[in-house]
């Protein structure tokens, strides 16, 4: 490890208050009012992550002018308007096997990467946390415990299938201070300015079409004095290690994806999207351009992953 300067429709009344889930049989909202707390009776649902890939009604995105008519989807060139849909289809496909694949692909090391990021968060009792692209809720679950009953966590994702998995997992764990909101990282429209003490995005920024817009939205919703943490795949710092990592990524990952999730193409996209993501120094500069100060990053596992940190002062 090295350091660089360094409405919904109203749910039916529940009959079993022992079960806990956020939105009954109603679809996840595209922007529930911030801080909205559902009663335990309202948190009853069982939404399976199965079936054909839907056409998503994705939350509206933003455009800073830094993204043209076309952009990259892995190594493919696609229309910018189509990327969010294509990414949504990838994560719908892998949602039910997402956690087990993370363990297999990283040999369990992703848990240490997330623990390091959480230790850097400085989260405290009573604080408000927004976990963007929070998926299956690994970070949100810990933040829920750390902020306590006087605090609040919002688990946000653009992908309904991933958000359903995270919702069920956290509700089963008894996390009653968490809301679940379908939102686009490029706008974070449901959330008011200066709302959160901590904003995190873990392994999600590389899938965002307009990263500059997303960073500006994150800056907007942070309170003065708040911090942003980005945990993301990055660029290995040792060339021999980088070549070995490429070999593993483009051969083993698609094979594991096919065997475990019956989907090799999504894991081929995963490997390609990592290579298209900005490197450590570039992302640090993008954060500074969005207004963040005292930005730094920490390389983990030889730069395979980096944790970037910035403050709204």
Automatic annotation (TrEMBL):
What segments bear the compositional bias annotation Basic and acidic residues?
A: 1-10
Q: Where does S-adenosyl-L-methionine bind?
A: 136, 157, 184-185, 202
Catalytic activity, EC: 2.1.1.163, 2.1.1.201
Catalytic activity line of the entry: a 2-demethylmenaquinol + S-adenosyl-L-methionine = a menaquinol + S-adenosyl-L-homocysteine + H(+); a 2-methoxy-6-(all-trans-polyprenyl)benzene-1,4-diol + S-adenosyl-L-methionine = a 5-methoxy-2-methyl-3-(all-trans-polyprenyl)benzene-1,4-diol + S-adenosyl-L-homocysteine + H(+)
Keywords on record: Menaquinone biosynthesis, Methyltransferase, S-adenosyl-L-methionine, Transferase, Ubiquinone, Ubiquinone biosynthesis
Write out the pathway annotation from the protein's UniProt entry: Quinol/quinone metabolism; menaquinone biosynthesis; menaquinol from 1,4-dihydroxy-2-naphthoate: step 2/2; Cofactor biosynthesis; ubiquinone biosynthesis
Q: Which GO terms describe its molecular function?
A: 2-methoxy-6-polyprenyl-1,4-benzoquinol methyltransferase activity; demethylmenaquinone methyltransferase activity
Pfam families referenced in this protein's UniProt entry, alphabetically? Ubie_methyltran
Q: Name one GO biological process term.
A: methylation
Q: What class of enzyme is it?
A: transferase
Region labeled Disordered — which residues? 1-41
- Entry-linked InterPro entries: SAM-dependent_MTases_sf, UbiE/COQ5_MeTrFase, UbiE/COQ5_MeTrFase_CS
Task: Return the NCBIfam families for the record.
Answer: MenG_MenH_UbiE, PRK00216.1-1, PRK00216.1-5
- What family does the database annotate? Belongs to the class I-like SAM-binding methyltransferase superfamily. MenG/UbiE family.
Which PANTHER family does the UniProt entry name for this protein?
Answer: 2-METHOXY-6-POLYPRENYL-1,4-BENZOQUINOL METHYLASE, MITOCHONDRIAL (PTHR43591:SF24), METHYLTRANSFERASE (PTHR43591)
Q: What exactly does this protein do?
A: Methyltransferase required for the conversion of demethylmenaquinol (DMKH2) to menaquinol (MKH2) and the conversion of 2-polyprenyl-6-methoxy-1,4-benzoquinol (DDMQH2) to 2-polyprenyl-3-methyl-6-methoxy-1,4-benzoquinol (DMQH2).
The protein here is known as Ubiquinone/menaquinone biosynthesis C-methyltransferase UbiE
Q: Which organism is it from?
A: Acinetobacter indicus CIP 110367
